[in-house]
């Protein structure tokens, strides 16, 4: 009997899609899967589907040592914690517990900034690069799944709201409006990751983990600029949203002063680095692995944006709204 697969992040968008495809596309018996959450209030939801449930909180190592007992594969979805130092402590807890419990293979969901390289300056990527490094030095068997930037998160990336008449961007060199990204659907990422977990690396011989970080790069089929996403919003909603530019310092101030989601100066400063990375080509590497796993061409970013804004008049993204203004 193969050891069970333990899944983190299954109460979230990506993990729930992976679980759905493991059960319904690949017909894995629920009894071979262990769902986890930081909260045991989620236990009945998973147990009623025949799944096992264990408590796993990256911030509480004792829960991880118990959860990782006797498992084969571990799907490790990165923490949603925003502070990098805290995030890294949590990720170290996961790697150390996996090592202590002799987990068979860790599948770490990382981010695709920089493609196969480690040169991205974006703060969010630093924690991923450091976690990949921890996995490498741990001696664990691991795969890094570098996931493209979610198409569904376009409102966050553009700071677009359904009421927006303009998209404000910082005036960067090269132009951030023309910086291209291989936007990737979160649903399709989940579908592709499930295929890998269900079939293992035998899913297709063309999918070979690359570099010493064992990277499988999962991206959309084409790199498109922000301007293409704005055109897609306008096509989908019949609007005439335009891009306008401000000098970087003024951009941070203007966005933080007037953000409907209440995001503050620190958030937009960090976003400025991400945008500079985008302008420099951090997100533009396209890789065919996701297409191979899906058995069809993944949806492009502009198609996804047009579909999403047509389907839901007030389309939003939960991370756009970080709570009360700080
Ligand atoms: N590629 C991209 O463009 C992009 C964009 C945004 C985020 N991300 C990253 O991708 C991850 C998954 O995305 P998503 O959209 O599925 O996020 P999501 O819907 O916010 O879900 C986050 C999941 O992570 C779990 N989690 C968070 N902190 C945890 C902790 N300390 N210990 C254990 N589990 C924890 C949550 O589980 P419980 O609450 O049940 O414990 C939840 O299931 C995010 O966490 C983030 O790191 C990627």
TrEMBL record:
Where does the NAD(P)-binding domain lie? 9-151
Position of the signal peptide: none
Q: In which domain of life is the source organism classified?
A: Eukaryota
Pfam families in alphabetical order = NAD_binding_10
Record PANTHER family: NMRA-LIKE DOMAIN-CONTAINING PROTEIN, QUINONE OXIDOREDUCTASE 2
Q: What is this protein called?
A: NAD(P)-binding domain-containing protein
């Amino acid at each position: 009997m193969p050891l069970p697969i333990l899944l983190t992040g299954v109460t979230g968008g990506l993990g729930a899609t992976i679980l759905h495809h493991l059960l319904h596309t690949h017909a894995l018996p629920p009894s071979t899967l262990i769902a986890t959450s930081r909260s045991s209030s989620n236990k009945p939801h998973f147990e009623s589907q025949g799944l096992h449930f264990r408590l796993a909180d990256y911030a509480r190592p004792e829960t991880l040592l118990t959860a990782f007992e006797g498992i084969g594969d571990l799907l490790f979805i990165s923490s949603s914690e925003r502070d990098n130092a805290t995030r890294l402590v949590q990720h170290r807890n996961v790697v150390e517990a996996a090592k202590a419990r002799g987990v068979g293979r860790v599948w770490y969901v990382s981010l695709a900034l920089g493609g196969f390289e480690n040169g991205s300056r974006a703060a969010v990527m630093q924690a991923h690069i450091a976690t990949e490094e921890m996995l490498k030095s741990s001696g664990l068997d691991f795969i890094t799944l570098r996931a493209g930037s979610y198409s569904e998160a376009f409102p966050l990336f553009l700071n677009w709201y359904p009421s927006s008449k303009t998209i404000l961007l910082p005036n960067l060199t090269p132009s951030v409006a023309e910086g291209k990204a291989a936007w990737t659907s979160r649903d399709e990422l989940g579908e592709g990751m499930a295929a890998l977990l269900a079939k293992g690396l035998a899913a297709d011989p063309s999918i070979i983990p690359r570099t010493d970080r064992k990277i499988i790069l999962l991206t959309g089929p084409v790199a498109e600029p922000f301007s293409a996403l704005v055109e897609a919003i306008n096509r989908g909603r019949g609007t005439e949203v335009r891009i306008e530019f401000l000098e970087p310092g003024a951009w941070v101030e203007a966005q933080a002063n007037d953000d409907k989601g209440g995001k503050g100066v620190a958030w937009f400063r960090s976003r400025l680095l991400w945008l500079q990375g985008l302008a420099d080509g951090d997100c533009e590497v396209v890789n065919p692995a996701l297409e191979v796993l899906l058995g069809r061409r993944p949806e492009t970013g502009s198609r996804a944006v047009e579909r999403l804004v047509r389907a839901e008049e007030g389309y939003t993204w939960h991370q756009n709204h970080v709570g009360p203004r700080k």
